[in-house]
Amino acid sequence: MKVDIWIMTRFFGKFSSGLGECGILLETTVKDKPFRKIHCAGWREISYQGLQVRAMVEAMNRMTKPAEVTVHIDSLYAAYVAEHEAEIKAHAKQWKEYKSKAGKMNSCHVIREMSDTYRSAILKELNEHRFRIRKDG
User: Fold this and answer.
1) Are strands 68-73 and 2-14 parallel, antiparallel or unpaired?
2) CB-CB contact of 4 with 37 (8 Å)
3) What is the per-residue pLDDT across 41-50, written as a single tens digit (0 to 9) for each?
4) Strands, E, within the chain: which ranges?
5) Is residue 100 a contact partner of residue 137, using CB atoms and an 8 Å limit?
6) Cα separation of 69 and 4, whole Å?
7) CB pairs under 8 A, 24+ apart, for 88-97?
8) Is 95 helix (H, G, I), strand (E, B) or coil?
9) Stronger pLDDT, 62 or 130, i.e. the higher one
């Protein structure tokens, strides 16, 4: 099974601490029928980069079975860290969690890309604010 995950983030505040939200759209085909699900989450007292990695973990938490996954995200930072074996000091625990979950997939690739179609669908859900804002940490 192939799954495309589209992640869009919004951050309000200082780079080091603020309010962050993410919208995650999962799209696949089941028995020749397209299937789409949107999930939103938010954190307060989170950094901009912390939001990016939290969004990646949150997306992987939505996966219930191994699949061929392509993650499309609006963050160059997240795409780079996810695809490269760099020494990560900031948010190391969360990156380790993401990489562990991604490693359980048949394949998982991350690219920096956002389509207007998916952005519109995610923004609609984010703007309705039907999700809980959690404290980071």
Assistant:
1) parallel
2) no
3) 999 999 999 9
4) 2-14, 17-30, 33-46, 68-73, 107-112, 133-135
5) no
6) 6
7) 90/49, 90/50, 91/49, 91/50, 91/53, 94/50, 94/53, 94/54, 94/56, 94/57, 95/53, 97/57
8) helix
9) 62
